[in-house]
Specification:
By secondary structure, the chain is α+β, with helices and mostly antiparallel strands. It has helices spanning about 1-25, 40-50, 55-65, 120-125, 160-175, 200-205, 225-240, 245-250, 270-280, 285-295, 325-335, 350-355, 430-445, 475-485; strands at about 70, 85-90, 110-115, 115-120, 130-135, 140-145, 305, 370, 380-385, 390-395, 400-405, 410. It folds into 2 domains: about 1-80 and about 475-485, no CATH class; about 80-445, Beta-lactamase. Strands 6-5-11-10-9-8 form a 6-stranded antiparallel beta sheet, sandwiched between helices.
Length: about 500
């Protein structure tokens, strides 16, 4: 058996070496041809590493056959609105906040999930995860990457971005630009008077209780609101406004479907209206507001990017393309009540508590653009995004954790009886519960907080935290991305006040 495994590893090495000779060795880790993707040589080397792992295919088959979870069997996020929509920058500052790196030895660490004994590298492989970063008491104690990603490559976080929007609302409220969270949104955005948004309070927007229609969960793409918006924005971009809609035009046309405050319904339109509010009260593009009020003050070490419409209005419910350590810095800011490691207050006192106070209407699962994570800890909360993106905070355990992933699939057997007609549906499976069980085990392993570790803030991944593993020979997919990127139009972003 050992000889067979050795021969298999030699074969893997030979395949990888051949790919690198053909495509070029991995390059210094930066974005690839599309924002949020690794450089092509790194991605291909990583993808091959994933495809030749038996555990990847074993878990895929088990999920599909035994559990009814059908994940697309390729190691990348296939949903890329950034290919056909403009990108705008989020500038970093010149003084990044310290994030010390002192990796522990995790080689003997395991956790239990569904009767199986798992490791952190196996979590990445079997849950379609590109990266995990663990920060304990302000120190990066472990990080793992696959599929060509590293701490220097930006990643799509999807709706993790919403929690950044909520943080900015707190800042604007503290600065007096928002009078009260009970104010109706049309008092700040007159274009929404007489629409479905008329009278909706800012707090109901924050809590996903606006009453306005939005359905991004349906697999029927022709009625999926998010897909519809992307198409309208793209039409507007590529016809120079002759067809399609801008972000604000699309939002203003949505209908109301229930009384505000009476139901919790997840709605990315709510977050985009909050971004519109921030753009209005600050008189700037959202990406500029984010940079000046949060990204630079919290000490982000790198820049970020977001997608926008033709006129520069940002689709702020998704897509803050950034690096794993900067996501960790934001999580640490939340864990410390809005204060950086240097003692600089960025968020108003009490605002993080408000964000993490879960509502009765949501069944105790949602606050201000923030989710509960009560399987991990009673006081845990998380910024959460499509396909399993997470910035999870366990305050009592002094733990912040980042997960960047591509877990897109379908739950094809939702009922208990696989032969029942109603046992089949379409639900994205993102392994959220396993992520929380992993964090609980990590917190127990690390133990109590021990402030003042005093390690060097400059470090490199080591031990298990190897930056290159993962992936597949999805050459066709890369070709599509490259071709689409080449067709993208570079547009100026002039905005009228």
């Amino acid at each position: 058996m050992a000889r067979t495994r050795h021969r298999f590893r030699l074969a893997v090495t030979a395949v990888t070496a051949a790919a690198l000779i053909t495509l070029g060795a991995p390059v210094a880790a930066q974005d690839g041809p599309v924002v949020g993707t690794p450089p092509v040589p790194n991605a291909l080397a990583g993808w091959i590493g994933t495809y030749v792992e038996p555990e990847f295919w074993t878990s895929w088959a088990t999920d599909a056959i035994a559990d009814g979870h059908f994940n697309l069997p390729y190691p990348t996020d296939p949903v890329k609105p950034e290919v056909f929509l403009p990108s705008v920058p989020v500038a970093e500052g010149s003084n990044p906040s310290p994030l010390p790196v002192d990796h522990r030895d995790w080689s003997d660490f395991t956790y239990e999930d569904a009767g199986a004994t798992m490791t952190i590298p196996s979590f990445l492989l079997t849950t379609r995860t590109d990266g995990v970063v663990l920060v304990h008491d302000g120190v990066v104690v472990g990080e793992w990457y696959r599929n060509g990603y590293s701490e220097n490559v930006r990643h799509q976080p999807w709706s993790v971005t919403k929690t950044f929007v909520a943080a900015l609302i707190g800042i604007a409220h503290d600065e007096g630009l928002i009078g009260s969270l009970q104010d109706p949104i049309d008092g700040y955005l007159p274009d929404l008077a007489g629409t479905a948004w008329d009278g909706v309070t800012i707090e109901n927007l924050l809590q996903m209780e606006s009453g306005v229609h939005w359905d991004e969960g349906t697999p029927v793409l022709v009625v999926n609101t998010q897909v519809e918006q992307w198409l309208q924005l793209a039409l507007d971009v590529y016809t120079d406004g002759a067809a399609g809609q801008t972000r604000n035009e699309f939002l203003a046309a949505l209908p109301r479907v229930y009384e505000q405050g009476s139901e919790f319904r997840y709605n990315s339109g709510n977050t985009q209206v909050l971004a519109w509010l921030l753009e209005t009260v600050y008189g700037k593009h959202f990406n500029e507001v984010l940079s000046e009020k949060l990204w630079i003050p919290m000490g982000a070490a790198g820049d970020a990017a977001m997608i926008s419409d033709r006129v520069g209005d940002v689709v702020a419910s998704q897509g803050l393309y950034a690096r794993s350590h900067d996501f960790a810095r934001f999580g640490e800011l939340l864990r410390n009540g809005g204060v950086t490691p240097e003692g600089r207050r960025v968020l108003p006192a009490g605002w993080v508590d408000a964000m993490a106070t879960m509502t009765e209407v949501s069944g105790g699962q949602y606050g201000y653009q923030t989710w509960a994570a009560d399987l991990a800890a009673d006081d845990a909360f998380t910024a959460s995004g499509f396909q399993g993106q997470k910035i999870s905070v366990l305050p009592s355990d002094c733990l912040t954790a980042v997960r960047l992933s591509y877990a897109l699939g379908a739950d094809i057997r939702q009922g208990d009886d696989p032969l029942a007609p109603d046992a089949y549906g379409f639900t994205v499976v993102t392994y959220d519960e396993e992520w929380q069980r992993l964090l609980r085990a990590v917190a127990d392993e690390l133990g109590v907080c021990a402030s003042g570790s005093g390690v060097d803030p400059v470090g490199q991944p080591g031990g298990d935290a190897t930056p290159v593993t993962g992936g597949g020979a999805a050459l066709l997919g890369v070709g599509v991305i490259l071709a689409a990127a080449a067709r993208r139009r570079r547009r100026g972003r002039a905005r009228t006040a």
